[in-house]
Amino acid sequence: MNIKEILYNECEAFVNNRLETIERIISSNKNALYSETKSSAGDKHETGRSMLQLEMEKAGQQLKGVQQMKETLARIVLNTNSSTGCLGSVIETNSFTYFLSISAGKILINDKTFFAVSVSSPIGKLLLGKTVNDELIFNGNKITIKNIL
Q: What does each C-alpha distance from 90 to 54, 69, 126, 131 come to in angstroms?
């Protein structure tokens, strides 16, 4: 298995983990919402229901985000190499190595650190379309692209 496949699998696991967590939250909130019974303290009951509704909406937004991540991963073609930074590229710079995919953060593989970043993130936008030896400034630091897989 090549490094792109390993990084892709790590991102996929990240998304599936997030999905499971969100689904548990939604299920738990639904159960709490259904089990809420009207008590003599009516205002307290309504406040509880309102809080649960807000949690459900928040979880719904997170679920949308996870679905967008899944769609982004589905667009990645693993068996091609491009000479320019694009979705699915592994870009090695003088400071870090990035996997242009989804915002999954730091991934450690064989004692080497990679950062899975979205193409819509600030660093992702800067890396898109760049080639080996291109230089860019990010957070006041000069970054040089050493390799693109």
A: 39, 18, 14, 12
